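Onboarding guide, step 5: your first structure request.
Type a short instruction followed by the sequence, for example:

Predict the 3D structure of this protein.
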Amino acid sequence: MVSGSHMTTVYLNGEFVPRERALVSVDDRGFVFGDGIYEGLRSVDGRLFEWQAHADRMVDGLLGLRIDFGAGRVAEFPAICDRLLRDNDLTTGDAFLYLQVTRGVAPRVHAFPPPGTPPGVYVSATRLTPRRDLQQSGARAITHDDLRWMRCDWKTINLVGSVLARQAAVDAGAFEAIMHRDGVVTEGASSTIIAVIDGVLRTHPLGHRILPSVTRKVVLTCAAERKLTVREDAVTLDELRRADEVFLCGTANDVTPLVVVDGKPVGSGVPGPITNALGDALNARLRSHR
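The system replies with structure tokens like these:
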């Protein structure tokens, strides 16, 4: 869970300012078009977790959207994050950093603004309180049509498909929505979905239909280190319903077991041994990444 109660300072377009004074133009293309890229990353005791993987993904998204904000400028973000962590008293414990780059301020015309239009840059830091209760007892999920566009590998700020899916989960009293296209599971509204079927970890392969999740990469590395069998092979809804274990993973949610999907228990209805082992492994990696 991300909380903004301790946040007093943010970074906006070259300045560190109080949050209440961080005003965005109504002509910013992020506001009128959702024309931008963002990243969300974890810090533990003031240290950024897996920064380079996040940076690489952000650069890829910016290139994909053709926003003139190269790797050199992305490399400036750690110093900004460090300052925000200090200014907001977040150098101990867990925190969440939000980084956003839009195509900038310009008249509302669909085509790109003139070359040289300055991108809009925003960074915030908030306290992160992991949901240890759900990580221990498990969470509920629903399945939902994947309504998003076809380049989900770019982490764009236009998230209405994920918003609708997550709200459907909330309306159903669930924590997450497992999205699917034509009966094939893609990912969660804000997480990677991994199922354990006959002792094999299964998840959707990388490509245009899912985000190349940083936490997914770390969890699959942890699985390989433990000699668990992993197949990057998409799970169908029918396979999901007979899975022994299902869990989600993400920057803010770590490894969270899913014990009920669409009102029916997953496996025995309690977090399974593989999920628990990978949750412990990810937590150890987070705490040792200093």
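Each response can be followed by summary notes, for example: The first strand starts at residue 2 and ends at 3.
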